[in-house]
Write a structure and sequence with these properties.
The structure is a single chain. With 267 residues, this protein is mostly helical. It has one domain. It has helices at 3-17, 24-35, 40-60, 62-67, 82-106, 110-131, 147-156, 167-177, 182-208, 217-244, 248-266. The two termini are 24 Å apart.
């Protein structure tokens, strides 16, 4: 298949799935295997398309990120602060650093992704079930999230280290369970995704940069731009979706995808 077409397909998949609770990593692994696009070259391409998705969120939340560089942005009692972001990402960054090799070696396969998809779906369905009768009591103001709630959401994010579980899926479900409305949990999830993904991408990039050639630049640029544009609209659509609907439909989709992936690769 033409490399530029692969760039468009993978960039589109990354843009659609990165911030939805469906596991972008799981989709990228499955699609990569289907396209025969894997190995070190695919790894570094995945990094570039993820950077495109990250940039879209920075663009959407530019006022929020700008505030983090002000004095108030460092004061935990004056709204969402740098400290709220830090407690949400430091635990998963620490564990990921030490577990990186194991995860890459043993958990990046269609089978393990399918397991993660199903387990993540069950967690999302459980969170919706537990909070269905007290939606009015859930926190709907991003600037009133406590440090404890932020830390607990960050703890749920540890589940996303299993490919297929989904970072946004685990944090959205965790957000509901610790008392946040879906939209509030989603906004917090997207904000903490940026520094977390940036560090992860930078780490991957430094490990694989030596294999990058001039011939790869066009493909990387195409994937980056496609991921940026698609992720931008995907995030805006998802926030509107959560205003009216639950996560259950995404849970059903994950289970269907897991069954389809297992059937395609193993039967």
């Amino acid at each position: 298949m033409d490399q530029n077409l692969i760039a468009v397909i993978v960039g589109f998949v990354e843009g659609v799935t990165e911030f939805l609770p469906v596991s972008s990593t799981g989709h990228m692994i499955i699609v990569g295997h289907m396209l025969g696009f894997d190995g070190p070259a695919a790894d570094i391409f995945d990094v570039f398309v993820q950077l495109g998705a990250i940039l879209s969120v920075i663009f959407i939340y530019k006022e929020r990120f700008a505030r983090f560089f002000t004095k108030e942005g460092w004061q935990a009692d004056k709204g969402l602060s740098v400290w709220h972001v830090a407690v949400g990402i430091v635990p998963v960054m620490g564990v990921a650093f030490f577990a990186y090799k194991y995860i890459k070696e043993y958990l990046f396969s269609p089978f393990t992704v399918a397991i993660g998809l199903v387990l993540g779906a069950l967690l999302m369905m459980y969170a919706e079930y537990k909070t269905k009768d007290n939606q009015a009591e859930l926190l709907d103001d991003l600037d009133k999230i406590s440090l404890k709630q932020a830390a607990l959401v960050g703890a749920f994010q540890l589940l996303s280290l299993w490919p297929g579980f989904s970072r946004s899926g685990s944090t959205l479900a965790g957000g509901l369970l610790v008392g946040l409305k879906r939209e509030t949990a989603a906004n917090y999830t997207f904000l903490i995704a940026v520094p977390l993904m940036f560090v992860a991408c930078l780490y991957d990039l430094l490990k694989n940069i030596s294999i990058l050639t001039v011939d790869d630049l066009q493909m990387l640029a195409i994937g980056f731009v496609v991921a940026f544009v698609v992720a931008y609209w995907s995030v805006l659509w998802f926030l509107k979706f959560l205003h009216k609907y639950s996560l259950t439909s995404f849970a059903y989709y994950r289970i269907i995808l897991a069954v389809a992936a297992l059937t395609y690769f193993y039967f």
